[in-house]
Amino acid sequence: MSENETEQQREEGGHERPKRQYTEAELAEMSRDEKMRLGLALDDVELVSYQDPWPVEGTRAERRAERAVAAWFTLAGLSALAFIAVFIFWPWDYVSPQEGGRGYLLYNLYNPLIGLFLGLSIFAVGAGVVVYAKKFIPHEVAVQQRHDGHGSDEVDRQTTTAILADAGDRSGFARRSLIRRTLGFGAGALGLGTGVIAIGGFVKDPWATEGPDSLAHTAWEPEKPGEKIYLRRDTGDPHDVSLLRPEDIDAGGFETVYPFRETDREDEHKLAEVLRRSDAPVMLIRLRPGSAPVRRKGQEDFNYGDYYAYSKVCTHVGCPTSLFEQQTGRLLCPCHQSQFDVVNTYAKPVFGPATRPLPQLPITVDEQGYFVAKHDFIEPVGPAYWERNA
Questions:
Q1: Which structural domain, as residue segments, surrounds residue 261?
Q2: Which of 42, 177, 180, 256 is least surrounded, with the fewest CB atoms within 10 Å of its CB?
Q3: Which residues contact 136 (CB under 8 A, 6 or more apart)?
Q4: How far is 94 from 100, CA to CA, in rounded Å?
């Protein structure tokens, strides 16, 4: 006889049965234990040892182990709820070191706390699963012969299901309601927390408010009609107001500028806050004489002579485009190497992952010779959001 014809499968009790195909009717007549033994035999697995960790139910040691697993899952749930609470309700608005006080302390604790509670929740779920596996899953020693794999048929599916069900029954999961409830609480709260992360940045309607604090506008938006928004340097001192004139920048040079309102001159908080706004920084560039960049349709008058102002926030993922190559006339983003051509085009991306030009700020010079913004950007800065026009 051939090797396939003589292949045998061993069942509990020592007797053998020739390996063959089983009908659905035969499988239906088998008990779960019989299917489990059949599945092991089909895979050439011999159970050397299969010990129930708790042969006597309800002992103190068993209940103590059950409470330990439940404690980990409870910790996971509480940590996930704490993460959600911090993520939604904790003060996250920027507070400068100069302001100090309780507000500065709370602001600095925001990121550490959401990281702590989310990490603790994930760790606690993992620890609970590991402790459960060590304490309640039957400890087995099995020997399996190597053989070529094959596709799963109905016998394989039913016997595998029987093996998994037997392991679940022997672990006592079905009768351990405390573990089931705490696992549901921990895993459910963790799932809710990850959902908050996914949708947390999409719950604000960009059209719900108007003015500089809305998503549709930036800090360059005038707060009242006729208000002048000057271009201001950051000298390192947030209370030092240094305005720019055309003669302050050499040909081929550039300067990072921020918005300034005369109404903010005596307000130390606003003077410092505007330097930390993510939508505020702008690159003011003076091109070399003879440069003639292609101007974007509808933005032909946004420049002032050889002076062009572009948002410093990369349109890929929002990093600062803080490198300017005078020889090539390109703005470079150091994060993912996007490059924007400001000499030949309107800051159009020519290399890297960015696909949208840098928004241009319309500028001019007032009667005193200072640079001012004509109005806010006419498109969102940075990566923008879902309602941006292409």
A1: 229-373
A2: 177
A3: 53, 54, 65, 69, 171, 172, 173, 176
A4: 11
